[in-house]
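Q: Convert this sequence to structure tokens.
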Amino acid sequence: MAVTLQRARLRFRRWGGASTLTHLQHIEAIRRALEKSNWPLSLSSGNRPKPKISFGPAISVGYESEAEYCDVELAARLNMATATESVKGHLPEGYELMNVKSIPRFFPSLDQTLNAASYEIISPLLVGSDHKWKDFDNQKHFMVTKKKESGDVVIDAKACVRSWKLDHDHLMLDIRFGPGRTLKPERIMQAVLGLSDAQVEMGPNNPSLKVKRIKFYLEKDNGSLLEP
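A:
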């Protein structure tokens, strides 16, 4: 097993057909691209060693994204000047490596630090809904039922939404997430606008609804935001 000498944090953009991949398919696509790039990847121990790559929070199938992150452990120093180009030709259609940077070897993982994200929702259903979002603002609590296989859970959407901005059919939502307060952006939109499940179902059967993850953040106790 190779010793880790460096960790690199990668940020990807994902769109088009790539938005239909599951999280496991996304992980496999990135892993294969990095293996083919000849990066000096650190490998796990065991009979079937694999590259040491950890990924940020999963995205829902159907979303596009400009904030897909992973941390890669390296057995030798990476040439940052050529790193992006060496991966570019091995990525599936619908992927772009936006940024590579070195991070401390013992930096907390993405899952341990990220607790907020920005989303863009585009839908004709948003047109003329300003008053509903203002009503949402005026509520002290706004309880939403989240359906789960283990049983329904009620979550306060007011604790989840940091901010919103509506421009005709474009909605920008800044959302907190974490244990006991995770809601998908389209489900918040559904609750505020009083929509049916079918109206906010993601996928090819509902092309009028588009959701894109724009950024991830660490929201500090004082309310300030840090990008990974």
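The longest strand covers residues 64-74.
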